[in-house]
Design brief:
By secondary structure, the protein is mostly helical. It has a domain at 1-9 and 24-103. It is built from 6 helices and no strands. Residues 1-23, 33-55 and 93-148 have low confidence and may be disordered.
Length: 315
């Protein structure tokens, strides 16, 4: 089935439609330009100040969208697999893409294009040629011709333009409704995410407090076990220390008794030494006196012998 493209012409004057020729060919999708735009810096054609409201068609930017951009958009808006986003080719029109797009959950399945517009579109669409029926093309063309005047042609063109504008408006309205629904779903998802994050943070805080309490209890139990183990280890040492202290006390008592005995012995020895010294001194005195006496005695005997012999010592 052949596809037709809708045009959104520039309405500069009311007389522009009457001056249009009936033999004008319908422009392609990439030749269609939007109407007056408020923002003149967006989608502007380079160096066209003399042509009013002549901007690039949005299809150029739609065709620059890749699958990567669509996946990012679906991920940001939280769309599931049931939402299928398609990129239109330059040969397709916006209405064809709107018909190919599947309906969202909770969305009406009714087509946004009115039935009359569809019927008119079907009338305008040419049926494919049957390869078997190739006879008499001139005869069929002559049979389908209907005599019309110029006013009816202009009126038909104006009706087609109005139908195209209405269908485009319906499509954009549908897109806006879809966008608002997606924004509502996104806000709902964000609220749910924030609630889940808050709940998770509260649970994490509770678990953290419990873990801290368990850790403090474990530290306390470990300290008590260390103290108990130290006490158990120190019991044999304490017993050994007590035994050594008892032995030390006994040794000290023995040392004291020995010291007392030694002191007594020293006193006795000192007393005996003094007596011995006295006796020794007396003995030495007696010996010296005896020696002196013997010397004097021998000297006397010598003198008496000299005297008896008659020696005169005074000479």
């Amino acid at each position: 089935m052949a596809k037709t493209s809708k045009t959104v012409p520039l309405k500069e004057k009311d007389s522009s439609s009457s001056s249009r020729s009936t033999s004008d060919k319908a422009p392609a999708l990439h030749e269609i330009f939007l109407g007056p735009c408020v923002t003149k810096n967006d989608f502007k054609v380079e160096n066209h100040p003399l042509i009013p409201c002549r901007y690039e068609h949005v299809s150029r930017y739609i065709c620059s969208i890749t699958e990567k951009h669509l996946e990012a958009m679906k991920r940001d808006y939280g769309w599931g697999d049931q939402v299928v986003v398609q990129i239109p080719s330059p040969e397709e029109s916006i209405e064809d893409i709107s018909e190919m797009r599947p309906a969202l959950p909770g969305e009406e399945t009714e087509s946004p294009i009115p039935k009359s517009v569809k019927d008119n579109k079907r009338k305008r669409v040419s049926k494919p040629e049957d390869p078997k029926d190739k006879r008499g093309p001139a005869r069929r063309r002559k049979k389908n011709l209907i005599p019309v005047d110029i006013e009816s042609v202009h009126q038909m063109n104006e009706e087609e333009e109005d139908e195209g504008e209405d269908s485009t408006l319906v499509v954009f309205t549908k897109f806006r409704v879809d966008l608002s629904q997606c924004e509502v779903e996104l806000q709902k998802t964000l609220d749910e995410r924030n609630a889940l994050k808050l709940l998770c943070s509260q649970k994490e805080e509770e678990e953290l407090r419990e873990l801290r309490a368990d850790f403090a209890k474990a530290r306390k139990d470990e300290a008590e076990l260390d103290k108990q183990g130290a006490k158990e280890k120190s019991l044999p040492h304490a017993k050994r220390i007590d035994e050594l202290e008892v032995k030390l006390a006994e040794a000290k008592a023995e040392v004291g008794e020995t010291k007392i005995a030694v002191d007594k012995t020293i006193v006795i020895y000192l007393a005996g030494a003094k007596a011995d010294q006295t006796q020794l001194r007396e003995a030495s005195d007696r010996e010296r006196q005896s020696n002196d006496f013997s010397k004097c005695q021998s000297r006397r005997e010598t003198l008496e012998e000299i005297h008896t012999r008659g020696y005169n010592l005074s000479e």
